[in-house]
Design goal:
Length: 66
């Protein structure tokens, strides 16, 4: 990945979320309470918005090249 292209905090959030998913996929007995789950909702929305903005900027830049 190109240095500085992606915010480190958002990359760390995605990594943490992905690792949580992997652990949960292979965990036979999963117990999460509502506060654990709802704690991911706002950061996930912000992450999606951030990535959407990056994609739009990239596509806009590509259009200017063509």
């Amino acid at each position: 990945m190109k240095t500085g292209l992606f915010d480190e905090n958002r990359a760390a959030f995605f990594s943490r979320l992905f690792n949580e998913r992997l652990e949960d996929d292979y965990n036979d007995l999963l117990i999460m309470d509502e506060s654990e789950v709802t704690g991911y909702i706002e950061p996930a929305k912000e992450y999606v918005e951030y990535v959407s903005t990056l994609i739009k900027k990239h596509l806009d830049a590509q259009e200017q090249i063509v």
